[in-house]
């Protein structure tokens, strides 16, 4: 069997660079990238994408759509790290742990859309609980998340690591128009029946995410407790790789959440905190790991026949 050719289109951005670094040196694939003088050439990019087995698109949304439109070879498979196709009905959503069947769907897919960083944590917490009927579909979900500045791309890295870094803000909330592009993705794949309230922010650290979702137990069915919510998450992820659910005892021992604690891993850590009346669902993960490049490589491995 021939060694598959994997083309990274856009290997100079934060996600593309990470993917390139992860795949360099692997002997089970042949890595294809464009030299600097050809990166903006539509002809060279189209030739490369049609000559590969799997294309990994690390591009802005419009450029990702153009790249897909240039595919003429029906054998080419695609992993798109942009948000261009995340809610598209003909694309498979690349969150392998989302459901028991999702890894198999990714493995056989021609088109896979890599999840957004924030949606990975939000869907990871919400979907099992909504599927089990513990959280109603019409629950008024409110999400708060703080990401490292690498989530803003090269411009954010330059702001915090460039010559004017001393003037970079320590913290900034954004998305104040309440129309963040991740909201439709979160709603569609979590199973929520209405738009969640989503408040994202960036902090003065390079990478890592803390995402939290408050839950009022009085709005849930009688008998639904923090322990039941935790048990549901623990059962859902018990046999799945790359997701860790802390025990209630481990969570209770924590006095703060460090957004950087999972940096350098491709795993998602989930936690449940409760006081008998209220519950806080929490996710911590690396926005460049499970939130981007790590998830893309996990999907690539599935599509190449691995786990």
Automatic annotation (TrEMBL):
Main location: cytoplasm
Residues forming the catalytic site: 117
KW Amino-acid biosynthesis (keyword) present: yes
Domain Semialdehyde dehydrogenase NAD-binding: 5-106
Record-linked PANTHER family: N-ACETYL-GAMMA-GLUTAMYL-PHOSPHATE REDUCTASE, CHLOROPLASTIC-RELATED, N-ACETYL-GAMMA-GLUTAMYL-PHOSPHATE REDUCTASE, CHLOROPLASTIC-RELATED-RELATED
Gene3D superfamilies in UniProt: Dihydrodipicolinate Reductase, domain 2 (3.30.360.10), NAD(P)-binding Rossmann-like Domain (3.40.50.720)
NCBIfam families to which the protein is assigned, alphabetical: argC_other
Name recorded for this polypeptide: N-acetyl-gamma-glutamyl-phosphate reductase
Species the sequence originates in: Pseudomonas qingdaonensis
Reaction catalyzed: N-acetyl-L-glutamate 5-semialdehyde + phosphate + NADP(+) = N-acetyl-L-glutamyl 5-phosphate + NADPH + H(+)
EC id: 1.2.1.38
Stored InterPro entries: AGPR, AGPR_AS, AGPR_dimerisation_dom, AGPR_type-2, NAD(P)-bd_dom_sf, Semialdehyde_DH_NAD-bd
Family the entry assigns: Belongs to the NAGSA dehydrogenase family. Type 2 subfamily.
Pathway the protein takes part in: Amino-acid biosynthesis; L-arginine biosynthesis; N(2)-acetyl-L-ornithine from L-glutamate: step 3/4
SMART domains on file: Semialdhyde_dh (SM00859)
Record localization: Cytoplasm
Coiled-coil blocks: none
Keywords: Amino-acid biosynthesis, Arginine biosynthesis, Cytoplasm, NADP, Oxidoreductase
GO molecular function, one term: N-acetyl-gamma-glutamyl-phosphate reductase activity
Xref: CDD domains: AGPR_2_C (cd23935), AGPR_2_N (cd17896)
PROSITE patterns for the chain: ARGC (PS01224)
Main function: Catalyzes the NADPH-dependent reduction of N-acetyl-5-glutamyl phosphate to yield N-acetyl-L-glutamate 5-semialdehyde.
């Amino acid at each position: 069997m021939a060694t598959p050719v994997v083309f990274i289109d856009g290997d100079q951005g934060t996600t593309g660079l990470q993917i390139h670094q992860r795949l360099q040196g692997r002997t089970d694939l042949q890595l294809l990238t464009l030299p600097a003088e050809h990166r903006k050439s539509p002809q060279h990019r189209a030739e490369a994408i049609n000559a590969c087995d799997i294309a990994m698109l690390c591009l802005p949304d419009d450029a990702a759509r153009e790249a897909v439109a240039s595919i003429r070879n029906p054998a080419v498979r695609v992993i798109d790290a942009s948000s261009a196709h995340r809610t598209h009905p003909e694309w498979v959503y690349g969150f392998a742990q989302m459901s028991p069947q999702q890894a198999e769907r990714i493995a056989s897919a021609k088109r896979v859309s890599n999840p957004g960083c924030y949606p990975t944590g939000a869907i990871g917490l919400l979907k099992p609980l909504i599927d089990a009927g513990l959280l109603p579909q019409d629950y008024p979900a409110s999400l708060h998340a703080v990401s490292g500045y690498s989530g803003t791309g090269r411009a954010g890295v330059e702001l915090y690591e460039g010559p004017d870094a001393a003037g970079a803000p320590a913290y900034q909330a954004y998305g104040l128009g309440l129309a963040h592009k991740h909201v439709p993705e979160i709603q569609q794949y979590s199973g929520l029946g209405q738009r969640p309230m989503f408040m994202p922010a960036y902090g003065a650290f390079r990478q890592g995410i803390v995402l939290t979702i408050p839950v009022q137990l009085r709005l849930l069915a009688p008998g639904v407790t923090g322990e039941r919510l935790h048990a549901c998450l623990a059962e859902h992820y018990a046999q799945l790789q790359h997701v860790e659910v802390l025990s209630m005892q481990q969570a209770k021992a924590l006095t703060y959440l460090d957004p950087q604690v999972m940096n350098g891993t491709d795993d998602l850590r989930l936690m449940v905190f409760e006081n008998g009346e209220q519950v806080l669902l929490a996710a911590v993960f690396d926005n460049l790991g499970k939130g981007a490049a790590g998830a893309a490589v996990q999907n690539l491995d599935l599509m190449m026949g691995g786990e």
